């Protein structure tokens, strides 16, 4: 690969690998068989000489795909989260003499991160099944004065949207998440819906015992949020 020649596998499985040069009339061939019981391969035949002029001059390589690059740079990416796609390009050029595009380097890096962290689709499937917050709520001390902080952050990954959260400080002076939701965007309607769920599922309505507590809500000054708080919690103190 470093010399710039491309190869095409003709047979590839767990026991045998056979490959030839991509130029059909070039005699370059390699045949190898797996040695049973150990992680080694026995090269049975290797025609080393290329008679073609297929050298690509380091401008790209079809065998140097994203999966190959991901396996090559996996340790670096796992050890350093700031290992960028540009650094992947530099490493492949240094080790193999092959220039790869930025997007191929990006895809390779994403393959490594997906293997380590999981993919976006799988993470979103797990959202409804997360019961850790509900278990924490059941064990929480709700007596007396309590303050709820409302925050939002925008999602910038594969799935866009806005994450709304509500949290407070528990009896151990630790942050206790009360509720969260992924919505399409931050506006009065999304905050109104979120606060209704918070009121009905966590805080309780006016007739519940929790209504006797003094509720204070802390948030930023987003206009839609201010209006939603006044609609859903009209008696609560609202600080900024």
From TrEMBL:
Residues 152-239 form the MULE transposase domain. This is Uncharacterized protein LOC109709086. It holds the Pfam family MULE.
């Amino acid at each position: 690969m470093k010399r710039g020649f491309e190869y095409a596998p003709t047979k590839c499985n767990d026991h045998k690998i056979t490959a030839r040069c991509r130029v059909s009339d070039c005699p370059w061939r390699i045949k190898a068989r797996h040695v049973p019981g150990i992680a080694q391969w026995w090269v049975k035949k290797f025609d080393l000489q290329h008679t073609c002029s297929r050298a690509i001059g380091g401008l790209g390589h079809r065998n140097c795909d994203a999966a190959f690059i991901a396996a090559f740079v996996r340790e670096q990416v796992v050890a350093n989260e700031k290992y960028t796609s540009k650094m992947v390009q530099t490493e492949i050029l240094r080790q193999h003499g092959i220039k790869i595009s930025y997007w191929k380097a990006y895809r390779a890096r994403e393959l490594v991160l997906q293997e380590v962290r999981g993919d976006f689709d799988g993470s979103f499937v797990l959202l409804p099944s997360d019961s850790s917050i509900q278990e924490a709520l059941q064990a929480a001390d709700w007596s007396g004065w309590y303050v709820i902080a409302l925050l939002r952050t925008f999602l910038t990954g594969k799935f866009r949207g806005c994450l709304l959260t509500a949290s407070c400080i528990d009896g151990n002076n630790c942050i206790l998440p009360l509720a969260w939701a992924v919505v399409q965007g931050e506006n009065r309607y999304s905050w109104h819906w979120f606060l209704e769920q918070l009121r009905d599922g966590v805080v309780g309505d006016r007739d519940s015992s929790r209504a006797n507590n003094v509720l204070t809500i802390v948030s930023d000054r987003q206009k839609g949020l201010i209006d939603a708080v006044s609609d859903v919690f009209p008696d609560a103190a609202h600080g900024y």
